[in-house]
């Protein structure tokens, strides 16, 4: 039913992201004097586990085994396992959940044993004033009520990108299961049936993010988003959110520590000892108190404040076609499309290898653009050289993508570097738009040398209307660009800095999670 | 010397060939030096081998054990070079491993444990009210498999059951969560029990019988969506309050939980009226592995500890009854009224699992 391009999209996304992660990991290893070391476990871990530092310290004290985590998206980690990229590089894998992993036999067979360590369900955190306004009783709220509030324009929310983050994916599965009325594990037919309702539901999504961390700061900055969808443990970290586990069902992450077939017996014995230590009463108590996740041993109660009322567990899809189909529908059809202006430095200093790297990166990115996405290319030197906008039309996606590639091919390096003047043009180009995730990507290989100054831009930004001030600039460090300058722009606009020095492809790819 | 003779005698009762080898070894052993035994075991036995009392009892006999867990059917995918024994949770995967590593003779089966379904009281009460379960006491009952399979066949939901509306979490298709039958033993044994009932109380053997039972098994599995690959994992989810209201686990896991925490709140243990025992079967790969297998079956202290962990030692009902006397509110001491379904051959079982998984 869908074109081959769109069906391939999630896989392609993952492939590039995995490559990026692999490069990062390789670099880190280069820095690291003792790559594989006895008594140290190199753990490929879901980003969500970065809150476990004090727990890992305790486990190290208890077992003498040091855990050295490398954080990545859960779906990227599965891809790495499936393609053998973890062999010899990691001693254990610790994901939010092995549900998605199990759908890929090539990845599942790399795992020897798995030990669930704690659990956290998907939940919705809502501002207390909004809960009150809606007349909700937190213990009684259902997904249908959430849906109704969204439809009535009384609830907006943010969530992480399901293609990159397991919290986003679990949220998507929860919502799709609940709104499709599926009584058991989701099927393709359920997803098809639920499309109109899901589309309506996702119109309420005002924030998307590649990570829970950025989602939190964007939420705090915006102030006009009513709720966040994420794991209960993440939402519990906010001071002013009422955390609701919808009554009609949730998907729960159980954080299994997994040992790997490619490692030796001694390594797996260390993994086992760590898993055992993680399940002692003392550590389980530390986990629930510190991270607000739920214990998996009966002798330790969940941290105070975690509601122990039972919830139906919504089954995770049992086949890859359903999981990937859902992801694909979300990206290309259900979510609000993205609208992005790429402000690209093509000054004289980009001549040669830098320009060709930029061209390659942009060309590769055309494999990732979603249906309905609007992409504007704004190359600049001493001034903006051209403004070309293309839309990926679901009826003929290839036409828009080919046009982007053609424009990319025509980029020429010439002129000075007018960062701020060009950025202002980008804002001029973007109006307030209720129906798209709007953002600006700024890639530059040098400092600002022409046109408006930083202070001018700050003043310009202050003068923007509220909704345009919400448009973030994601900045990409490249060549000789000035980190402080780009950090300032990201901070001012609520964006984020990405490092494109090692892999420009990788940086562009990572930003996709925020668009 | 008397002690050794005692062991040999007890082992003889279990398996003559193994005993002969153990006896041969014993005569060469000189005494107290600790021998390290490396083994790969089903996840449900991890706590037993990690129990300090078990460690001590083994140390007293001169053994230190290093155990690694794996799905029973997944053990085939492991390189067992350097291991002394594999200890899957039933006969079929053990037999395949034995064939592959050319282990001859009867494989020792020191203890067994029936499959049970754990539930919370609300779910158990609703099932009882709808005649799917007979409760004997508040925390123990029998699941009527034929009635359950009939409900599954008709895609019955909790909402259609009388009394379920009181419990918000009881919605969706009525189903028991099991592990993945292609990688884990308890999931495969679930299919063995279900196929036996669906086949009119006869073990599935022919292609025609596979054909006939496959659609129901497919249904039992597909409603679950993604399945866990270890019995420990599904049980942990249950304990942490996540997951499906009905979960298939080993009786031993429940017994171990109750040993730690005698008051398990609103836990209810449901014994399917047709079930399958998990016969924990040792595949000795080295002489040391054989020694340990013998010891597990024969040493009174280890048998007692196994019983305390909820395993039923082979050949003597009294040991289990005694060890679990404080847990009878939840556990049946005798499995009267529980029919033991024979397990299909491993070829048939694999085919059933493959088809069920789709």
TrEMBL record, chain A:
Pfam families: SBP_bac_11, VWA_3. It comes from the Bacteria. PROSITE patterns: PROKAR_LIPOPROTEIN, VWFA. This is Ca-activated chloride channel family protein. It comes from Streptomyces griseomycini. Residues 339-490 form the VWFA domain. The lineage of its organism: Bacteria, Bacillati, Actinomycetota, Actinomycetes, Kitasatosporales. Keywords: Signal. Residues 1-27 form the signal peptide.
From TrEMBL, chain B:
It comes from the Bacteria. This is Solute-binding protein.
């Amino acid at each position: 039913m869908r074109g081959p391009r769109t069906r391939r999209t999630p896989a392609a996304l993952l492939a590039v992201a995995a490559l990026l992660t692999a490069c990062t990991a390789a670099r880190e290893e280069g820095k690291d004097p003792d790559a594989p070391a006895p008594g140290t476990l190199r753990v490929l871990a879901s980003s969500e586990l970065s809150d476990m530092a004090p727990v890992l310290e305790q486990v190290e004290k208890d077992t003498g085994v040091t855990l050295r985590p490398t954080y990545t998206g859960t779906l990227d980690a599965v891809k790495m396992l499936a393609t053998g990229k973890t062999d010899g590089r990691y001693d254990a894998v610790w994901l939010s959940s092995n549900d998605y992993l199990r759908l890929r036999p090539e990845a599942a067979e790399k795992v020897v044993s798995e030990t669930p360590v704690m659990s956290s369900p998907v939940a919705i955190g809502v501002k207390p004033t909004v809960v009150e306004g809606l007349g909700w009783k937190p213990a009684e709220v259902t997904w249908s009520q959430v849906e109704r509030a969204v439809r009535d324009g009384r609830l907006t929310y943010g969530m992480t990108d399901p293609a990159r983050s397991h919290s986003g994916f679990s949220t998507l599965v929860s919502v799709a299961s609940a709104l499709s009325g599926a009584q058991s594990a989701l099927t393709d037919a359920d997803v098809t049936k639920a499309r109109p309702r899901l589309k309506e539901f996702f119109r309420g999504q005002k924030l998307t993010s590649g990570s829970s961390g950025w989602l939190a700061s964007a939420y705090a900055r915006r102030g006009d988003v009513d709720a966040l969808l994420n794991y209960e443990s993440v939402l519990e970290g906010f001071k002013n959110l009422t955390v609701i586990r919808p009554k009609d069902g949730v998907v729960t992450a159980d954080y299994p520590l997994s040992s790997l077939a490619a490692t030796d017996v001694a390594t797996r014995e260390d993994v086992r000892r760590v898993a055992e230590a993680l399940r002692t009463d003392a550590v389980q108590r530390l986990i629930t108190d510190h991270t607000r996740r739920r214990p998996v041993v009966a002798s330790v109660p969940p941290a105070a404040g975690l509601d122990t009322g039972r919830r139906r567990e919504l089954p995770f899809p049992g086949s890859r076609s359903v999981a990937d189909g859902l992801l694909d529908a979300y990206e290309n059809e259900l979510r609000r499309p993205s609208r992005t202006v790429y402000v690209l430095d093509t000054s004289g200093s980009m001549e040669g290898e830098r320009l060709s790297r930029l061209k390659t990166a942009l060309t590769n990115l055309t494999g990732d653009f979603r249906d309905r996405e609007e992409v504007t290319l704004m190359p600049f030197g001493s001034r903006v050289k051209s403004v070309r906008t293309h839309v990926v039309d679901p009826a003929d996606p290839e036409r828009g993508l080919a046009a982007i590639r053609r424009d990319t091919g025509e980029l020429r390096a010439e002129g000075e570097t007018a960062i701020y003047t060009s950025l202002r043009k980008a804002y001029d180009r973007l109006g307030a738009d209720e129906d798209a995730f709007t953002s600006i990507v700024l890639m530059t290989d040098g400092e600002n040398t022409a046109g408006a100054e930083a202070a001018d831009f700050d003043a310009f930004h202050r003068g923007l209307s509220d909704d345009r001030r919400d448009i973030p600039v994601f900045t990409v460090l490249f060549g000789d660009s000035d980190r402080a300058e780009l950090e300032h722009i990201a901070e001012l606009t609520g964006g984020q800095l990405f490092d494109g020095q090692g892999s420009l492809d990788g940086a562009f790819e990572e930003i996709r999670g925020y668009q | 010397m008397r002690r050794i003779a005692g062991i040999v005698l007890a082992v003889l009762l279990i398996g003559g060939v193994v005993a002969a080898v153990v006896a041969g070894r014993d005569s060469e052993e000189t005494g107290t030096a600790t021998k390290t035994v490396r083994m790969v075991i089903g996840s449900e036995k991890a706590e037993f081998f990690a129990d300090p009392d078990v460690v001590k009892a083994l140390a007293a006999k001169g053994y230190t054990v290093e155990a690694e867990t794996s799905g029973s059917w997944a053990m085939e995918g492991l390189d067992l070079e350097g291991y002394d024994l594999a200890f899957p949770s039933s006969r079929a995967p053990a037999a395949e491993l034995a064939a592959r590593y050319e282990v001859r003779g009867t494989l020792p089966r020191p203890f067994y444990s029936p499959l049970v379904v754990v539930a919370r009281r609300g779910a158990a009460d609703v099932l009882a009210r709808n005649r799917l379960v007979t409760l004997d006491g508040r925390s123990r009952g029998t699941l009527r498999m034929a009635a359950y399979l009939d409900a599954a066949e008709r895609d019955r939901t909790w909402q259609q059951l009388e009394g379920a509306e009181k419990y918000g979490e009881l919605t969706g298709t009525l189903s028991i969560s099991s592990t993945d039958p292609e990688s884990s033993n308890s999931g495969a044994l679930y299919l063995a029990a279900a196929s036996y009932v669906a086949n009119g109380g006869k073990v599935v053997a022919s292609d025609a019988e596979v054909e006939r039972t496959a659609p129901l098994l497919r249904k039992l599995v597909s409603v679950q969506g993604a399945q866990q690959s270890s019995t420990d994992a599904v049980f942990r989810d249950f304990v942490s309050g996540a997951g499906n209201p009905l979960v298939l686990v080993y009786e031993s896991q429940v017994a171990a939980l109750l040993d730690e925490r005698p008051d398990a709140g609103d836990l209810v243990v449901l014994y399917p009226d047709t079930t399958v025992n998990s016969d924990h079967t040792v595949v000795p790969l080295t002489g040391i592995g054989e020694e340990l297998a013998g010891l597990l079956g024969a040493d009174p202290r280890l048998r007692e500890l196994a019983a305390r962990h909820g395993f039923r030692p082979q050949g003597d009902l009294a040991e289990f009854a005694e060890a679990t006397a404080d847990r009878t509110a939840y556990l049946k001491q005798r499995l009267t009224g529980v029919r033991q379904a024979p397990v299909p051959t491993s070829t048939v079982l694999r085919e059933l699992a493959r088809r069920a998984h789709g």
